[in-house]
């Protein structure tokens, strides 16, 4: 059951607005890649992955189709890279929240809220990944995301167990097995929320439920969702 992948730290493009460049303006390869990636995410708001072409993406950001084909092998590759970029953003947010002193239950609730709100902002990307997991490139990126989230949470569970702040003992699931189950549950709850177009009230309900389940599983006690 345990996913054994290490916690990944890939260097990929971050957030960039997909603003078309003025004609003739010099552009570096890294900026070109970032613009094209932002263009793909922009277009996912209105177009499914299989209908996106390299030329359409390039034109959206004021570039030529050849710019896309020099930078990427396919739109699917870009979707996978975008997921990895958001994973890095998710980890950075969790690191910042969990590094604060105070009640670890409240910190965990706040870290969940940070990740949840981030994925609400990138709804189209998350659903595009889920809808295209049959594509090898996107399937590999999705498994990488799941493995990374599970490894990150398992490290956290081991740290709070080691500090005597969480349930521990031979009768309990290992940190790896517990983390994998909690991440799978959280991803499923997030998917349902995003697919039904849940509003802020629905988001609060989902976060409160996930906080309760995670806190009970890790700490054996309730955690306040007020830290969201």
Describe the structure.
With 228 residues, the protein is an all-alpha fold. The chain folds into two domains: 29-72, Homeodomain-like (Arc Repressor Mutant, subunit A, Orthogonal Bundle), CATH 1.10.10; 76-227, Tetracycline Repressor, domain 2 (Orthogonal Bundle), CATH 1.10.357.10. The chain is 64% helix and 0% strand. It contains nine helices and no strands. Helix 4 crosses helix 6 (123-131), helix 7 (136-162) crosses helix 8 (175-195) and helix 8 runs antiparallel to helix 9. It starts with 28 loop residues before the first helix and ends in a 10-residue tail after the last helix. This is TetR/AcrR family transcriptional regulator.
* Overall domain count: 2
* Rg over CA atoms: 19 Å
Quickly give the structural class: mainly alpha
Helix tally equals 9
Count of strand segments: 0
Nearest-integer average pLDDT: 88
Shape: elongated
Euclidean distance between termini CA atoms: 31 Å
**Element order, helices and strands?**
HHHHHHHHH
Main β sheet profile:
none
**Residue share in helices?**
55-70%
Beta-strand content estimate: under 5%
**At the third CATH level, what is the topology name of the largest domain?**
Tetracycline Repressor, domain 2
Q: Architecture of the largest domain, CATH level 2? A: Orthogonal Bundle
Q: Uncertain regions: pLDDT < 50 for 5+ in a row?
A: 1-16
InterPro entries: EthR_C (IPR049397), Tet_transcr_reg_TetR-rel_C_sf (IPR036271)
Organism: Nocardioides zeae
Pfam family, one: EthR_C
Domain HTH-type transcriptional regulator EthR C-terminal: 110-220
